[in-house]
User: What shape does this take?
Amino acid sequence: MDELQILRQKNLETIFHPESIAIIGTNRVKGTVPHDILDNILKADFNGIVYPVSPREKSIKGLKAYKYVIDVPDEIDLAILVFPSSVCHLALEQCGKKGIKSVIIISAGFKEVGEAGLKREKQLIEIARKYDMSLIGPNCLGVINTAPETNINASFAREMPEKGNIGFLSQSGALCTAVLDYARAKHIGFSKFISFGNKADISEIDLLYYLMNDDETKVILVYLEEIVDGVALMKAAREVLEKSGKPILVIKSGRTEEGASAAASHTGSLTGKDEICDAAFEQAGIIRCDNIEEMFNKAIAFTYQPVPVSEKVAIITNAGGPGVLTTDAAISRGLKLAKFSDETTAILKKALPATANINNPVDVIGDAKSDRYLVAIEAAFRDPDVAGVFVILTPQSMTDIDAIATDITRIAKNQTKPIYASFMGEKDVASGIDILQQHRIPHYSLPESMCMAFQAVYLFHTNLKLKAHRIPVLKNIQQEVARKLMDNYSSNGREFISEVESIELLQTYGMPVPQGKLARSAEEAVTTAEEIGYPVVLKVVSDEIIHKTEVKGVELNVGSAQEVRNAFERIRSNAKSIMPGATITGAYVTPMISGGEEVILGIKRDPLFGPVLMFGLGGIFVEIFKDISFGIAPLSYDEAMHMIENTRAFEILRGSRGHSPRDIASIVDALLRLGQLALDFPEIEELDINPLFVLNEGEGCVVGDARIIVKLS
Assistant: This one.
């Protein structure tokens, strides 16, 4: 961490564990934000001293009030500002002079309202930097810490949440109130609950580092509306995983983007911001969720129950249909049905009626009471092949709903395997669900949600050890030569680097490029073709032509000197006819490569996450099928491999239906080299290799075509 980050972590400690708080701008008017924050702090039984600061009042709620914070005679750990935005800077200046290092600014009216507000916000930051203060907010709900030694509700939420092991961070204050209400109804507790608003100073990244070391927090939930520094976010998430093993679940709003303009490269046109965000989150180990319900469905599974050691589950139900639905959902999520031992089968056969299904899923039949559920659940827990138990209940007239729920909570207490429940229905099962939730048994309205949550926990802990971000050291890289080439290319003010130049640059980074030459005349093309050996490919070369096929500027499988002459003239004539203003430099002559599988590799520079790599099915149909995946440079070997495995093209590449397996290892190497190139040359905005011909296993791959777009300084 740098000095500023260290300072923020220190100041965060006094935000969450203050011994004294000043509420600056509070009043006596019930139902107003300034009053309710003071009221909440007092009602939560905060274990410290509270100082109301109010220019108009002498006392509030029996506490002596001070006109200005500077008038408070004692030291203050935390200041909470609820003044109008127009005077917040004056109050903050006083906090600085008072020596207060930690401040929560509740007030709105800053960058969220436009230029004038942004100016006010920058003013706050300048004051904070001057006095080494750290700020949460502005424009936020506040902060809650349920730790008994502190017990602080420094927010204007309606009630203090239950104590738990979930740390919740949100950029939206309004969403926070809805989440607290949702959680209270389901008895979901929190360790820390933080609304960070405009994140003018302290951001989600600082808070991730803080919660990483917070013993009360087992799982971290984040709601984000914007990402300012994607690289820092990925770095923080990786550190949280590596040092604490705590899962991070994130909702990032803004999945769709209207009006995106087409880019000059395939990579540019195929790479949307949300796909990049998905790739970055997955690579950093962040679990992305689509909505609040999904987030909490997974969060309670992480925090309430033991970690499953395998994907094998036992399903126990009192209705055949829901048992089948749960089975389908489990299999579709990559889970498996456990195979019961002979001992388990014998126990079930003896205890359950003849009409019951004693195989997995176990159907205890609709008239089952708690005794049948009890036998089935205990037998499933004892079975060595079972890694987790799913209990499904539908409310029949004879069903002991509360008794079954109570038995589940009792059995689960001493288990090393997880148990999840789905009491299907609403009103009839409500009391049973409440029993489960009070005792921290994950409950799901739908079996599909239960299977999704189990899968998330299992995959997270299975993959945790694979998330170490080890970047391989690459050989045969001539960075200094590449630098000279790039400087030479960009000196003429062109954004587009031709194929010939792109191939030349790629070669300096150890990429497998074809033997080829630029021919400025038909006779030069013949000479080159005979040096290379027939058949050859001719491609038009022009600074103005980006997509050669669109001007009929490519001739394949050219097999003789005369064919070369004819092909040279055809591509020149075609290009001139379709793009009369283009200057034709000549033709690029390369060997004709046959028998390889065509894939595409690419680079796109993202403003938030930096260089993004793309891999997918290549050729002319790449934008039609869009069988592509993304990764953020630098890549580890496993991350590059995962990019390939994440496409349908992988099945083709590894050999299927009689096709020979292709050299996947050479694609991995090419992706790693492209990633390094992108890091070393930030001026590269976009790069396409399309196609990359992937030969049979052990034979490598060859760049078929390449184009680079650079950002001019």
